[in-house]
């Protein structure tokens, strides 16, 4: 992978991390009980509201730091697919004026999938740990 591609992967990882961190913070600010209530109102078990909020918050931080990037990105793909099928599909690709569409979720899925399969970049804790492992062997 070229250095330009690695730089773009780092930017994509950090941007996705910031976006998910913001979504996680927003869920905590509105109150996890309210999030769970909203999940229940759309037919999703309320406890998943807590799970998703933690995944978004902790996952966002992990992506910013480049920690467990592949696993976190894979988990976020699952969350995003869940969001599309439970909350956004009925609104259509671009939304229906009453709710958001799923166009951004698709873009986020593509970024997260890239991060699942892309090589580790230098500016990440994953890279630091993989270097330590390679020097031990």
From TrEMBL:
<comment type="similarity">
    <text>Belongs to the DoxX family.</text>
</comment>
<feature type="transmembrane region" description="Helical">
    <location>
        <begin position="106"/>
        <end position="125"/>
    </location>
</feature>
<keyword id="KW-0472">Membrane</keyword>
<feature type="transmembrane region" description="Helical">
    <location>
        <begin position="47"/>
        <end position="68"/>
    </location>
</feature>
<keyword id="KW-0812">Transmembrane</keyword>
<protein>
    <submittedName>
        <fullName>DoxX family protein</fullName>
    </submittedName>
</protein>
<dbReference type="GO" id="GO:0005886">
    <property type="term" value="C:plasma membrane"/>
</dbReference>
<dbReference type="Pfam" id="PF07681">
    <property type="entry name" value="DoxX"/>
</dbReference>
<keyword id="KW-1003">Cell membrane</keyword>
<feature type="transmembrane region" description="Helical">
    <location>
        <begin position="75"/>
        <end position="94"/>
    </location>
</feature>
<dbReference type="InterPro" id="IPR051907">
    <property type="entry name" value="DoxX-like_oxidoreductase"/>
</dbReference>
<keyword id="KW-1133">Transmembrane helix</keyword>
<dbReference type="InterPro" id="IPR032808">
    <property type="entry name" value="DoxX"/>
</dbReference>
